[in-house]
Amino acid sequence: MEPISVIRSRTVVLPYDDIDTDQIIPARYLTTTTREGLGDAAFADWRYDEKGQPRPDFELNQPEAQGCAVLVAGNNFGCGSSREHAPWALYDYGIRAVISTEIADIFRSNSLKNGLLPVVVDRDTHAWLLANPGAEVSIDLGECRVGLPNGHEVEFAIDGFSRYCLMNGIDQLGFLLQQEEQIRNFERNRPWQP
Questions:
Q1: Residue 80: which domain range?
Q2: More confident residue, 154 or 82
Q3: Is residue 131 a part of any domain in this protein?
Q4: Is residue 148 a part of any domain in this protein?
Q5: Number of domains within the chain
Q6: Rounded to an integer, what distance in angstroms lies between the CA atom of residue 111 and that of residue 77?
Q7: In degrees rounded to 5, what are phi and psi of residue 11?
Q8: At 7, phi and psi to the nearest 5?
Q9: Quick one: pLDDT at residue 190?
Q10: The dihedral of CA 68, 69, 72, 76: what is its sign?
Q11: How confident is the model at residue 175 (pLDDT cuts 50, 70, 90)?
């Protein structure tokens, strides 16, 4: 995972409500245990026709969507079944943050553990972002703020542990491994033995 401090990017907008994890990555792609290559399967049933050709009218296939690292989605993004493959696919595709008014809890948790920043904003900010696809935004994880091109800034919430891990480019295991010396010291110096 790449450390996140500030994400500056144009937005790509999927204005649909209730985008579930099966739409983010269809179940037939869940046979892998690695993240690499899953970006090709992100939104596969929406991005490609039955012959595997890109659908020219789908938002992510538009030329202006290329290189966008911030996805603005409709309400209730990431609902449905729990699958880590969903944030893996978005991350491998190049998305580093998802903005919505509501992000499903399990998807949010999986995202935070896998380097994808879920950002919940108020309805007015969300409406502005939906109406202005391609807007250049900045997401400052240190300050927990989203900056819009008109100078407006909004705060978002994130727990301290997830913020630390994202800012340091580590997952939960990486955090534990950073504590290895302290764990060994504790094991050597504890007054009791198991």
A1: 6-189
A2: 154
A3: yes
A4: yes
A5: 1
A6: 12
A7: -100, 150
A8: -105, 120
A9: 82
A10: positive
A11: confident
Tokens of 119: 């950002």
Distance CA 74, CA 144 (A): 21
Pull the structure tokens for residue 5: 């401090």
Task: Flag whether 169 is in a domain.
Answer: yes
**Residue 2 tokens, joined:** 């790449």
Residues 84-97: tens digit of each pLDDT: 999 999 999 999 99
CA separation for the pair 83, 58 (Å, rounded): 23
- State the pairing for strand pair 153-155/145-147: antiparallel
Which residue carries 């972002």 as its tokens? Answer: 129
Number of alpha helices (DSSP H) and beta strands (DSSP E) in the chain: 8, 7
Return the CATH number at 156.
Answer: 3.20.19.10
Averaged pLDDT score across all residues of the chain? 94
Question: Do 141 and 166 contact (CB within 8 A), yes or no?
Answer: yes
- Mean predicted confidence (pLDDT) in 22-29: 95
Global pTM reads 0.90
Instruction: Check residue 156 and give its pLDDT.
Output: 98
Q: What is the DSSP letter of 103?
A: B
Contact assessment for residue 70 and residue 129, using Cβ atoms and an 8 Å cutoff: no
**Under a CB-based contact definition with an 8 Å cutoff, are residues 70 and 95 in contact?**
yes
What is the per-residue pLDDT across 106-147, written as a single tens digit (0 to 9) for each?
A: 999 999 999 999 999 999 999 999 999 999 999 999 999 999
Whether 194 is in a domain gets the answer no
